[in-house]
Write a structure and sequence with these properties.
Length: 298
């Protein structure tokens, strides 16, 4: 090391000596808990995205989130932006698209970009954006009237999973609470787990809706080890209303759940808050991010 470089490095070391080690430790990425790997499901900011897509993405990056889960794909675009345009925006703010939500298309057959309408292009666009997963987001009432509907869904998920695999993506299914309600003498969620190919279809466990259904996610992790690479991390408020709340402000024991991340096979989780009482979703996702700095994973 030459003299100039030595003096420069010595000066940095000298200045750091006056900063308490506790502060340096807290600032270290290794001590940011699970927040450093947190993603955000963009549905939380749907109104803002409609008004200002790029500006909203920039605000998400400033909070600290690094990974995103998209929704609202239609005919090759997200909120009117082409895949190339979206990718450019993500690169500008050092963000990554990890997953996206799609619909079966059964209830809306004319929609282009669903599991039954232009699926291969949908997957190809997801791959171009850099996604690793793509998940069935929701079933409309007419799509889940009987247990046979879930059998048909299992077949569709397996088929879509095969196409996804060809493009390097993993197919997944995202739940609400109705999948845990008995239908025709069976639990639909259990049927999906039994009939979906373990390699072609994984599960994105929404931990709010699981809690609302009175289901212990840890028991599912243990019984179906490695099948839950994606989670939705959103909290449930106390009281009869059980309203959505910022992570850490509700009744869910997050440390207990993250203690079983390895058993679940967790690869990526996304903070989501369907609705906010405050009407200030950016403040809510910031509170969630800050809380997750104190949570560790197994």
């Amino acid at each position: 090391m030459n003299r100039r470089k030595f003096i420069k490095h010595a000066g940095i070391a000298s200045s750091l000596a006056f900063i308490p080690s506790s502060i340096l430790s807290a600032c270290s990425p290794q001590n940011q808990g699970v927040a450093k790997e947190a993603g955000l499901q963009l549905y939380t900011l749907r109104e803002a995205l409609e008004k200002d897509f790029k500006g909203t993405i920039e605000k998400v990056a400033k909070v600290g989130y690094k990974n995103l889960e998209f929704f609202n794909y239609s005919d090759g675009k997200y909120f009117g932006n082409s895949i190339k345009e979206v990718k450019s925006i993500l690169d500008e703010f050092n963000l990554k698209a990890k997953s996206s939500h799609v619909l079966t298309g059964w209830a809306m057959p004319d929609n282009i970009g669903t599991m039954t309408n232009d699926w291969e292009r949908t997957v190809a666009d997801a791959a171009e954006l850099g996604q690793t997963h793509i998940a069935c987001a929701y079933l409309f009432d007419s799509e889940r009237e009987s247990i046979d509907d879930y059998k048909r869904l299992s077949d569709l998920l397996n088929s879509c999973g095969e196409t996804s695999k060809e493009y390097g993506l993993q197919m997944a299914y995202h739940n609400h609470d109705f999948e845990f309600q008995e239908l025709d003498g069976k639990i639909p969620y259990d049927l999906l787990l039994s009939q979906c190919d373990v390699n072609l279809v994984k599960f994105e466990l929404d931990l709010y809706w699981t809690a609302r259904a009175g289901v212990d996610p840890v028991e599912y992790f243990k019984e179906h080890e490695g099948r839950f690479p994606l989670w939705h991390v959103k909290d449930m408020g106390a009281g009869e209303e059980q309203f959505f709340s910022a992570v850490g402000e509700g009744v869910i024991d997050w440390q207990r759940i993250f203690n079983h991340a390895s058993t679940a096979g967790l690869k990526q989780f996304f903070v989501e808050q369907d609705q906010t009482k405050s009407g200030k979703p950016f403040e809510e996702i910031t509170k969630s991010y800050e809380y997750l700095k104190g949570i560790k994973r197994s």
